Predict the structure.
Amino acid sequence: MNSNLKFFLTLLGVSAAAQGLALVLPPYFSELFTLACINAILAVSLNLVNGLSGQFSLGHAGFMAVGAYVSASVNVFLLFSLHGNPLGDQIALVLSLLAAALMSAGAGYLVGLPSLRLKGDYLAIVTLGFGEIIRVIILNIQAVGGARGFIGIPTTTTPFLVVFVLTLCVLLTHRFIMSSHGRALLAVRENEIAAEAMGVNTTYYKVQAFVVSAAAAGVAGGLFAHYLSYINPSSFDFMKSVEIVIMVVLGGMGSVSGSIVAAFVLTFLPEALRPLQDITHVDLRMVIYSLALILMMLLRPKGMFGRRELWEMLKLRRAQKG
């Protein structure tokens, strides 16, 4: 079977299974599942920068915000004529997500081109500043609600579409890693000076990863906006960026499957601890959440999977048992 056909059938099969699961699950768990998938898209996209290229970005929520507000604005102000029937709503959503991806990629290019010449803490500070600049700009644009938030966004995001985008993101990321561009980025991560000496244009490849990562974050922001139907600048603050970084670090820097598992664990964990509040009458969720992260980093400093993928670890365990 043609590899592209396998690729497409995998996307459809996984997405259809997710839609069926969402119909069976109670609405509460279905919502958690959808939000976990959106967080997984963010974590996988950030892993391109923080894990694959060895940089450290702290402004991923800024790209998510760009995608969320651009997609909502395009859908509400430009594509309103398509609303009113399921097909038109989905076409409007897809078009608005494409606009979100393009605008977020453009923002990633504008930020990445000058800042990715920096390294380590300096890059983290620049990307952190970018994220806060985006949030403050949105806060002062009254056309999209300003501090009140953007209301009236069509609720058209479905579990099928979210899982479709997540699966597409994972498969494309895997192909990207296995390509010559991915190998160049791995060389930059391992030793940037040696990579430059071998003729690798390090700035070009780092900016390329930054742009792709920003585009995926923008799509995740668009899905988020069209799922909750309301967005607010406070949803994309510094703590959101930190949350995404934690998912990447906990899963393993450079592990795509690790980012997905960590995104699901960190999305479900606070809700799983909610019954404790009824028992103790004190909200201990974030205390336990923080302690769990500290213990995880002490016991597994490289994250759950390190730089390996889930299937690689399963093969290794089978080999050890054999």
Q: What stands out?
A: The mean pLDDT is 85. Residues 3-236 form one domain. Residues 250 and 303 are 5 Å apart (CA to CA). The radius of gyration is 20 Å.
